From TrEMBL, chain A:
Domain RecA family profile: 85-260
Pfam families named among the record's database cross-references: HHH_XRCC3_RpoA, Rad51
InterPro entries per UniProt: AAA+_ATPase, DNA_recomb/repair_RecA-like, HHH_XRCC3_RAD51B, P-loop_NTPase, Rad51_C, RAD51B, RecA_ATP-bd
Subcellular location(s) of the protein: Nucleus
PROSITE patterns, per database record: RECA_2 (PS50162)
PANTHER family listed in its UniProt record: DNA REPAIR PROTEIN RAD51 HOMOLOG 2 (PTHR46456:SF1)
Full protein name: DNA repair protein RAD51 homolog 2-like isoform X3
Keyword Endoplasmic reticulum among UniProt keywords: no
SMART domains: AAA
Family designation: Belongs to the RecA family. RAD51 subfamily.
Superkingdom of the source species: Eukaryota
Keywords: ATP-binding, DNA damage, DNA recombination, DNA repair, DNA-binding, Nucleotide-binding, Nucleus
CDD domains: Rad51B (cd19493)
TrEMBL record, chain B:
Localization annotation: Nucleus
Domain RecA family profile: 87-276
GO biological process terms on file: meiotic DNA recombinase assembly; reciprocal meiotic recombination
A single MF term (Gene Ontology): ATP binding
Gene this protein is translated from: LOC113726790
Gene source species: Coffea arabica (Arabian coffee)
Family that this chain belongs to: Belongs to the RecA family. RAD51 subfamily.
Keyword annotations of the record: ATP-binding, DNA damage, DNA recombination, DNA repair, DNA-binding, Nucleotide-binding, Nucleus
Gene3D superfamilies in the cross-refs: P-loop containing nucleotide triphosphate hydrolases (3.40.50.300)
Biological role: Involved in the homologous recombination repair (HRR) pathway of double-stranded DNA breaks arising during DNA replication or induced by DNA-damaging agents.
Name of the featured protein: DNA repair protein RAD51 homolog 3
InterPro entries: DNA_recomb/repair_RecA-like, HR_Repair_Mediator, P-loop_NTPase, Rad51_C, RecA_ATP-bd
Principal location listed in the UniProt entry: nucleus
PROSITE patterns named in the record: RECA_2
Amino acid sequence: MRKSVNRVWRRVMANKLISEMGLPKSIANIFAARNIHTAKDALSLTEFELMELLDVGLAEVTTAVSSISEISCPPYQTRMHNEHLAGHLPTRLKGLDAALCGGIPFGVITELVGPAGIGKTQFCLKLSLLASLPSSHGGLDGHVVYVDTESKFSSRRMIEIGVNSFPEIFQIEGMAQQMAGRILVLQPTTPTEFSECLQKIKDSLLQHHVKLLVIDSMAALVSGRDGQGQCRQHPLGWHMTFIKSLAEFSRIPVVVTNQVRSHSGDDPFHYSFQDSRQNLDFPTTFDSHLVAALGIPWAHAVSIRLVLESKSGQRFIKVAKSSMSPPVAFTFAISASGISLLHDDGIEMTGPEINAICGQVLKHFNVASSINDAHNIKYFRDFEVTVVYSIKNWSFRVVCG
Amino acid sequence: MEVSSLPISASHRAKLISAGYISISSLSSISPAHLARDLGISENEATGILKVASQRGGPERTIPSHHSIVDGLRAQTAWDMLHEEESCRRITTSCADLDDILGGGISCKEVTEIGGVPGIGKTQLGIQLAINVQIPLEYGGLAGKAVYIDTEGSFMVERVQQVAEACIKDMQEYDSFLRKDLPARQVNLQANDFLANIYYFRICSYTEQIAVINYLEKFISEHKDIKVVIVDSITFHFRQDFDDMALRTRLLGGMALKLMKLAKKFTLAVILLNQVTTKYSGGSFQLTLALGDSWSHACTNRIILYWNGNGRYAHIDKSPSIRSASAPYAVTGRGIRNLASNCKRVKLM
């Protein structure tokens, strides 16, 4: 952990002061006189602009910029394989762990996306538990910060998962309390509170041995604002970079859940050189009219995207984006002990369907009367209910069976 | 040549002009002391100005041994360039179809932009090229090293290890199948050797990105065996938090020029990975590469990776020398490879 603190401070290269860079005094003074104090100030101007501003010749400017760049540039590394920075949090789902080379990777954002009620929160609860377990039982022996924006965290359910998955631990006196005591739940209700939460998390991450950060869900804070438009300035821009850098500096796994929305006519799927009448990569079947919320920039920013969906009565968890895994899908089910895979051998999906999100949902709940209720699944009942989403107007019919 | 076009500071320029020195030839036979007196500046500064003037105006600039029509400029004839182009090595992508449409592989000496939706395989292709540039000469490679500039943290060591091991295996197979008659030779490379030859820079802000691209000129002149520079991705730090779009365009333009200069000066391949965004054109929203229209002119070659039917395809969107075409490829456990199916025909546009 101490090593990562050094990295945090070293990282702020953009704010390095020119006065401390050891440049020849004459040019350093000129920079200061013109209010260019940091590397960022200097490098945000082109060389001609600097010439004009500082009233010096091109050769001098080039030399100065070259020195500033060399000093502000982070040193290179050669990434050898046996480094301690790469780590994984095993999910205890054998097939998934194998596909992800060990589990949820440290230092990057792993996204869980899927329709309501599919099991994202269940997965998060299980991961929180796993991170808090002692290392003798395969856990990370640390604290967990759980940011719950939709009030879906259920400690009762989490204990239930714990008792059923690791009975030998939870039967020990006081263990349940100790485990649950390691999980800190924050429930911001507005975007501003959420931003403040993140800042505070960053400050206390290192001191409190936090080994996992869960944000459930990210989409709750922007779904009200921009609907489904593709804005120029992404409202999540700051959060995205912040969370990414948080993950990287602290080298912990960061799990973020994302919602889905229906595909609108405005969602583009083609480039200008493609013949859009063919529509080959977007099957126009009823099932795949859902897309992940938060937009394309977010999809680029996450390193691992796990799509959870339901098709023909089966739930699937798909590794849709991962630089070290083949595109595989596993069938899973939700049980008393959390999530479990039905088969550890995944189904390889080489086409674009790995990214598609299917909207048929098989759920257990007491009768939901609106989409909002469908998001707040807290209880499990005996009867199965099939909810079929309609594309156009978010209405659905409930079929008991 | 005019004094107003000299790269000197604005105040010096103004003083020269007001003192009557309009053209460079007027400076050719003057002493620094005289100039200093005339302009009211120090003798050192005058010497500096005269030095710049002589560099610009003099006909004794070193020109390659081909006669050029334009005096004082470094120019080559098209015939000489043809020889250079043909002897220019290319980096294979490990996918035969993709290599075909690229004319043999990614060309050194040029900037190639590769863009696509998330998950299509841009980083995979970047990693594959960082490994393939290291293939020894006797296996048809360039025996070079790679610079990998990572702005998003997508460089996963385990994956690079996988691709490197697969590459070594391919070389061993090549030996056993195609060189049966020749004396056996061992492939003495390990995956760690490949990893050690990739100079990895982790960039966390646009300032660092500009800094590293500026610094590369010095770095590569000290490490002459670098044959490929991969930036993954060029977009990330320029996409959000940029209120001043004009500034962004200027900075991107400056970066593009520096990269082109690097590619040309050191004969290496520069590969820029880009993200996608949407644009409204022709009555509907379409996918397009990010960073705007002015950026799209900056790179020499442009390849778009996209989904088509059930497979991943690469499309040559822009290139001065290769015709527009698409080819399928696959991302496998061993890296980028040919799509192993019946429909492998290359689609020409």
